[in-house]
Amino acid sequence: MTKTVLYARVSTADQTIDHQRTQAEQAGFAIDDVVADQGVSGVTSRLVERPQGKRLFDLLRAGDTLVVRWVDRLGRDYRDVSDNIRAFMRRGVVVKTVINRLTFDGATTDPMQQAVRDALIAFMAATAEAQAVATKEAQRAGIDSAKHKPMAYLGRKPSYDRAKLDEVATLLGQGRGASAIAKETGLSRQAILRIRDHRADVEHTLARWECR
Q1: Which superfamily does 4-109 belong to?
Q2: Which of 126, 139, 178, 187 has the fewest CB atoms within 10 Å distance of its CB?
């Protein structure tokens, strides 16, 4: 019997597995099982180096579907993400994403469809790596700024936590509009625009609250 498995990776206390499962189910996926790595950085660890990431390769069989929030959950960089997607496809596993509803299926035999699929894998993997690097640099700048400025006045508490900020950054990186992101995340359109246009300031403010 085939199954649909959600792989979730949560790297901070603000993120939850339940939230990622709810997002997947709201997107129309009927999840049979959840495999999750907690407290794991996607930037520094390859999928096979994560305890539960490694388990996916033993758990999934031909005909199964692997659901992830986005392709960045499947590796730490371009090569890791693309290699893992192709590894699952060779096993007969269909990989689907919650964001953008992408489907990577190794069953197609048409050369043109294969070429389009492979190009899409390469593009999305490269985009995931670029987004991860940009996010890491923005976080570092925000934390450094927070450490070197007085903490007496923190300013207004942001309406989003680290997990929500990362989610918005990912959606912005995919070219989604501010109104659509606001509807999907529950944040105001003004908050989305501020994250888009003043990322350094946003990271600084959030870091100050996190360091308080």
Answers
A1: Resolvase, N-terminal catalytic domain (3.40.50.1390)
A2: 126
